[in-house]
Amino acid sequence: MNRKTEKSLIVGLDIGTSKTVAIVGEFQPGEPVEIIGVGSHASRGLKRGVVVDIESTVQSIQRAVEEAELMAGCEIRSVYASISGSHIKAENSHGTAPIRDKEVTQADLDSVLNAASALAIPGDRWVLYKEPQEYLIDGQEGIRHPVGMSGVRLEANVHLVTGAASAAQNIMKCIQRCGLSVDELVPSAVASARAVLTQDERELGVCLVDIGAGTTDISIYTQGAIRHTSALPIGGDQVTNDIAQFVRTPTANAEEIKIRYACALAQLATAEETIQVPSVGDRPPRRLARQTLAEAVQPRYEEIFEMVQAELRRSGLEELTRAGIVLTGGGAKMEGVVELAEELFHMPVRLGVPQHVSGLSDVVSNQIHASGVGLLLYGAGREAVRRPAGAGVARVGGLWDKVMHWFKGNF
């Protein structure tokens, strides 16, 4: 496909508990990323964000990537991939480095970031993500963009996100088995925040809650910088299981009922509304009041939000999140979720859909794709600094490379 050569292609691979999504974007510095391809496939190889079956995970990555390649008319070689799970932990660190030429350069920023990351991190954990919160030059605080400023000593407060090395290695192994290289693994909470939060919210203080199928990812921002990240081992799958048990129907049917009829706040569903529920085996389907279904769903969402609130309190940042809560992810699509969250948190709550991108509108305007779009935005920021245009994706010859890679791997 003959696209303008000055544009770079970038790929976000969101490996979730219920689905794997590959999103291809085209970008050039100074312009919004344009989404030109998307592929999605059901995922069965993960449990609560962590790989439990390599073969199934490889298969779902392969299917999603092939679909995205077909739509975008390109060959994918490398991806920015998401990582989640309750093994993800965050801490705030401090680093110091001398300013080499008495004027701060990008190299000085890199060395102070590395100094802050050189904590005694156990061998079974990896630093997945690091982001400077603010800089100090010769003791002067509150500096956000120090490049070009004069001084002798540069310090930085840095937010570090670490994860279990084994969990990260297993995700990378699955991606590499598909003949792809991993540009970076990015925590889902960080990626989603890139896609759905506004700069004003980050400044004022905001808590992002991404409710996925297996995990609920949280990131908290105040004064324009990330302060806290975590992943809770609870999500939409538990809601599906509750419905399956409550109405005694198979899980696949329960998932469909959840998507089509469920409501997270019982008072929004009237008792007159009824739905048809398939039964197990060859028993005839039954009718059920939609309000009764909501009464089965509401307690689980209350539990999710109580766990989020406990995490918010534990972070010590509850009083500083003045912009309130932003909900995103597939679990936030249900009717009544925002209203229930407002009742429980006593602060403003809004639904977050991906922003800052153009292109395929069904991807852009859907909170299910918050993490995938966020990976594109994160990658575009990294690529603009690091790599010349057109490097990550080959338009010609790539397919032959892949065939040769497969051939070598199998014979």
UniProtKB/TrEMBL annotation:
In terms of one coarse class, where is the protein primarily found? membrane
What would be one Gene Ontology cellular-component term for the protein? cytoplasmic side of plasma membrane
The listed locations are:
Cell membrane
Domain of life (superkingdom): Bacteria
Entry's NCBIfam families?
ftsA, PRK09472.1
Subunit field text: Self-interacts. Interacts with FtsZ.
Q: What is this protein called?
A: Cell division protein FtsA
| Record organism | Tahibacter aquaticus
Taxonomic lineage: Bacteria, Pseudomonadati, Pseudomonadota, Gammaproteobacteria, Lysobacterales
Gene name for this UniProt entry: ftsA
